Inverse folding.
């Protein structure tokens, strides 16, 4: 099997390279300029213009509050990919090293579902993101009244001519795609890397239960080193993506809150209601994948002790047993990924976040 990371996230890294979130093999002199130009023009500027409109008009609608909450969250979410993209690139490609490639058919049976799952989630998010942005600007494209997708302050009259109007709509579309890419590219990538860690732990358990009779100590040393490598990855994974995950959790809580309020203000049979409900399930799924794959990683590491226990340890010599005890003691430490030490990536955290969002809705209503 070829590079498992490249197979899993090829589409993600290609688009991220275009957006300058992922450094190419040969970095051009304009890479730094493009990176921050896209970030400022397609994310910061629309957010600022929307805030100006709210301040100037002294009024706001549901679309504006949701847009501002999400774009501010995305601004912080993308920032680590701009500042530390080389470190993040190394973290992403950690399991792409030959040492982690499956060595036999049994290991391939463990890795293949992981690769396929990552590919499916990435494609699903990409299609969903693009479709959502098209639905957002489509009413404005077919409108005969020159109505923008959302109220926003502009230094010119967007309805002064057809060219100016459609140029503004195109800018809206590009800005929404850029912001939406923070969901369709980054979330499947981060969740998928946690799933790859889980798959490597499963392979480690298989190896512990099938130590070679002629070289038990040598095989066990390799298992210990593999476990250390997985621990190193999880530590680096948390350092690289902790701020991104924290931004997503914070933005999702507010987004769910404003979205629930918005649904109550429009007819359920309207396009706006469908848009808000769709958005609700999208933001819920973002955090769910983080928490789900984080829970899988936590539980898989917990069962490592059982994998050692069900092996034929009672037939090994004292030297091997000591190594097994060391491995078991290390695996007792919970392998929990956190978001800036505030949130644990577990399904328990997901349920608490839903409850918190409901409480905020009750208060704001």
């Amino acid at each position: 099997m070829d590079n498992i990371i490249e197979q899993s996230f090829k589409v993600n890294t290609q688009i991220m390279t275009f957006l300058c979130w992922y450094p190419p093999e040969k970095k051009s002199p304009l890479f730094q300029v493009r990176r921050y130009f896209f970030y400022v023009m397609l994310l910061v500027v629309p957010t600022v213009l929307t805030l100006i409109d709210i301040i100037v008009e002294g009024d706001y609608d549901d679309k504006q509050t949701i847009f501002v909450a999400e774009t501010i969250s995305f601004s912080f979410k993308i920032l680590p990919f701009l500042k530390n993209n080389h470190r993040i690139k190394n973290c992403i490609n950690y399991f792409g090293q030959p040492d982690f490639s499956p060595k036999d058919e049994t290991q391939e049976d463990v890795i293949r579902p992981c690769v396929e799952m990552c590919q499916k989630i990435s494609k699903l998010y990409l299609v969903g993101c693009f479709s959502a942005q098209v639905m957002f600007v489509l009413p404005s494209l077919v409108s005969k009244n020159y109505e923008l997708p959302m109220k926003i302050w502009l230094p010119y009259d967007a309805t002064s001519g057809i060219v100016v109007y459609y140029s503004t709509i195109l800018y809206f579309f590009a800005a929404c795609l850029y912001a939406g890419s923070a969901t369709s590219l980054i979330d499947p990538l981060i969740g998928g890397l946690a799933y790859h860690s889980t798959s490597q732990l499963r392979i480690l358990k298989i190896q512990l239960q099938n130590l070679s009779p002629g070289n038990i100590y040598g095989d066990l040393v390799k298992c210990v080193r593999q476990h250390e490598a997985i621990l190193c990855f999880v530590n680096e994974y948390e350092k690289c993506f902790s701020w991104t995950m924290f931004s997503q959790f914070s933005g999702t809580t507010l987004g769910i809150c404003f979205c629930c309020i918005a649904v109550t203000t429009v007819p359920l049979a309207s396009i706006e209601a469908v848009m808000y409900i769709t958005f609700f399930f999208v933001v819920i799924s973002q955090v769910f994948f983080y928490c789900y794959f984080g829970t899988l990683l936590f539980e898989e590491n917990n069962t490592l002790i059982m994998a050692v226990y069900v092996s034929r340890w009672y037939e090994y010599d004292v030297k091997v047993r000591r190594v097994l005890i060391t491995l078991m003691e290390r695996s007792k430490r919970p392998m929990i990924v956190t978001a800036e030490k505030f949130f644990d990536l577990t399904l328990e955290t997901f349920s608490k976040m839903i409850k918190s969002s409901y409480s905020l809705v009750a208060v704001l209503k």
Remarks:
- The first helix runs from residue 4 to 18.
